[in-house]
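Q: What would this chain look like folded?
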Amino acid sequence: MEPETPIVGLVVGTQEATPLDFSVAVAPGRFLQLDDVVALERSLPDGETVRMYGVVSQISARHEGAQFDSDVFLIREQLLPAEVSEVASISTTRFEPEIFVPPLPGSHVRIAQGAERDQALFFDRMRQKVPVGLSHDEQPLFANLEFIDGTRGAHVNISGISGVATKTTYATFLLQSLFTSGALGTEAVNTKALVFNVKGEDLLFLDRENIELDPEEAARYKLLGLEPQAFRSVSFFAPPKIDSPAAVPDVASRATGVRSFFWTLAEFCQQGLLPFLFADAEDDRQQYTMVVHNVTARLQKEATPLPDGAVMIEGNEVRTFRDLVDFVSGKVDDDMEREYWAGRAIGPGSAGAFVRRLAGAVRHVDRLIRGDVANPEKHRIELQSQVNVVDLHNLNDRAKRFVVGVTVRRAFEEKERAGRARPLLFLVLDELNKYAPRDGSSPIKEILLDVAERGRSLGVILIGAQQTASEVERRIIANSAIRVVGRLDSAEAGRDEYRFLPAPQRQRSTIIKPGTMIVNQPELPVPLVVEFPFPAWATRASEAAPSGESVDDPFQGIPSS
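A: My prediction, written as C-alpha cells:
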C-alpha cells in the first residue's frame, strides 16, 4: 500500500465548490504551488466513495480580518488581529467512478503521489507513454503515443517566441524520447524523421555528445527513463556552395559527414517542380499562375532527359537552370510562341509577370537545379538514417520553400505508394507560418494541409513549430492533437488559438523560462507544465564532443531488428 500522505488543506466553505473546480485552504505549516496534483474523497449517501483528483491552477494569500491595504503594517506590529490565509484554486482532472459531484467543504485534501498521481493525470490509461518532461518536483510527465502516432490522433504543434521558447530544442528532445523511450517498441529501428534546419547550423551536430551537459542534467534523463546521449543514426544534407562545379556542401562548421543535395534539370521538368518556385502564398486569381501550370505541362512533355541530368528541349541542350529560364522566357515573351508556352488567352501582362518572377528565382535556386554535375544520384535527399537533417539556413526564403515543398511532397508520395502507415515518418518543420500561412494558397501549403488531414492514416506525423500560431493555416493547427506552448508574446497569448490554456496559464506563458513548456493533450483536461533536460546532443559547434567518425554509415548505433 502507498504510504499515507499528510493532509495539505481542506476544501473551503466560503466559496462555491463545483465538480469542475473548487478551492482549498492550505493548512498551517503546509504549502501548495502551481501544478501540484491533489486528491480527496467524498462519500455518497449509498455508501459509495468517489475519488476526486485535480491540479493547482492558482493560489492566493491574504490577511483575514484586515479592512484596508495599510492594515498590513498594523498587523505586522501585532496591533491588529489577523490571520494569513492561503487558498489554492483546483481544476478537477478526474473522478473515479465518474459521478460528477462537488467536494464537500471541510474535506481533507492531500498531495497525489505514486498510483494516485498516475490516476489523476490519466497515465494509468496510457498503454504507450512518451516522456515529455518533468514536473516541478522532478516527477516524469507523459503524453499518450496514441495521440501522436495516428491511432487516435496525430501531429504536434509548438508555439513560442524565437530564441526564448526553445521550440526546436524541444522538438528534438521529443524525437529522442520517441526513439529511445521504448514507446515505439521494435518499430523505433525503422521509424524515420525528416528534420528541416532553418536557422544557423544548430542541428548539424545531433550525432555528437554535448560537452556542456553536467551530471545533474544527465541525471534528469534517468528520471524520465531515458539515456543522456546523442542521436545514434543521423544523415546530414546541405545545399551546394554557390558557383561550386563539384557541388561542395555549403557548411562552415562541419567538415565531414554532410552530403550536398540538388535536383537535376531532368527531375525538375519531369516531376513538374516549377510551381514550387512560386510557393509564396500566391493568389490563384492572378493569371500568371495559369502560365506556371501551362509551362510546367509543356516542360514535362517537351524536355527529354539526358543521362547526366541535363535535358534536351526542341534540339537545345540545357545544362543550367539559367539556360532553362532563358529558353522558357524567350518562348513566353515571343509573340509567335506565347500561345504555345503560356496557353491560350494569356495576355502580355500575365506572361510578363511570370517571366519576371521566374528570372528573379535564378540567383536563389540555380545551385539547387542543375545538369552539370557528374553522378547526380549521389546528391539526393534519401531517408536512409533514423534522423535526416536537411540544412536550409543559407538559402533565401524562396529557395527554402522550394526545398521544403519538393522534399515533403516526395516523402508523402512515397508513403502513399507504400500503402501502410508503419513505420512512421516524422516531419519536423520550424517557421510553419512561412510555409502554410493563414491567407493565400500555394503548392507547399496544400501539401502540408494534406499531411495534416491525411497524414495520420499514412503514418506521416508533422511536428510543426512557429512563433505565432495565429498566422498559421487553421486546419493545420486544428489537426494537431498535441499542442505545446513555450514563452509567448502577451499579444499572441490573447489570441483564440490559445483558448485551450486556462487564463492563469495564458498569463504564465508570457513569463516562463527557456526549458519550460506547457503541453496540452486530448486525454487530460488540464495542460501540463513540463521542464525538459538540457540537450544531451550538441546544439552548436562549440558544444560538440570531438569525434573522428563520419556519419557515412546511416545505421550506426541502431540495433538490428
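The longest helix spans residues 397-418.
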